[in-house]
Amino acid sequence: MSMENISPGTRSDVAPRFLQWSPIVLGALAATALSSVLLTFAVTIGLGVTSTAPTWRDTSTALAILSGLYLIIQAVLSFGVGGYIAGHTRTPIGTDAVGETEHVDGAHGLGTWALAVVMGALLVTWIGAATVSRTSSARGAAQASAAEPLLSYELDRLFRAGRRAPNVDLSAERAEAGRILLTTSSHSGMSADDRTYLVQQVGALTGLAAADAERRVDGVIASATTAIARSRRSTVILAFSVATAILLGAVAAWAAACAGGRHRDGAPLPEWMDRSNALGRRRATVLP
């Protein structure tokens, strides 16, 4: 069958269903770049749900929620920009109905969203792996404990001594004490045997009297319990914020891609965007 025998309607029914990867990749790169800039700005001004700095212990619930809201807003904005670019730069093929064109543009927006999510996950994984590798090599394998990043201050307090022989390595003792302190977050809490063992270790390594060592261990246990509870709260808020941001980002990418396609084709904007533009023009007219 020659190309002359193919009607425009038949060609347009098939061709627009294929994805164009150049607009998708461009939109995903733009979304990832904008998201990185906004997240860096948030961390700079202190809007971080989790942080390696010791000040995270003083983070209030309100600040954690505000940080989560910012995470959602930046995701909607970033995915929206990426989706708009993908929809606006897509080359329409043939003449389609408005509904079919919007579906194809929206699919490009979802493709941009999916690729940006994968790129962001790979970037976070790479940065996290590099950080863990650098930290492990600096501290040594014996000190590599799950409790060390979370309870490092408590472990410092636990084995603090006025005088200690030079070149004393407490890595193994810190790692063991960290694992014991993590049991404070369990339903049954720390066992009496573990508490007695910690008191003995602190007394032997710091030279404190039994009563002083017991008071120090009790204080550290209370502080560790609070630190673990705050870490769990921050983790829950972060997980909920990330999931909400990703889901709302998909909606934003779809809507923005459809709007970008309408701008590309010179079609009327959706009703909700038309109202926003009219409201913006009205405000600009009122302002001197």
Verbal overview:
The protein has helices at 8-14, 21-44, 61-89, 98-139, 148-158, 171-182, 192-206, 210-265, 271-286. It is mainly alpha-helical. It folds into two domains: 18-140 and 236-279, no CATH class; 148-227, no CATH class. Mean pLDDT is 78; it is low at 1-16.
Average pLDDT works out at 78
Measured by DSSP, the beta-strand proportion falls in under 5%
The percent of residues in helical segments reads over 70%
Note the run of SSEs as H and E.
HHHHHHHHH
Query: Radius of gyration in whole Å, from Cα?
Result: 28 Å
Give the structural class.
mainly alpha
The end-to-end distance, rounded to whole angstroms, is: 65 Å
Compact summary:
The chain is an all-alpha fold.
SSE topology:
Elements: H1 8-14, H2 21-44, H3 61-89, H4 98-139, H5 148-158, H6 171-182, H7 192-206, H8 210-265, H9 271-286
Helix pairs in contact: 2-3, 2-4, 3-4, 3-8, 4-8, 5-6, 5-8, 7-8
Offer a few descriptive terms.
288 residues; mainly alpha; 2 domains; elongated; disordered N terminus
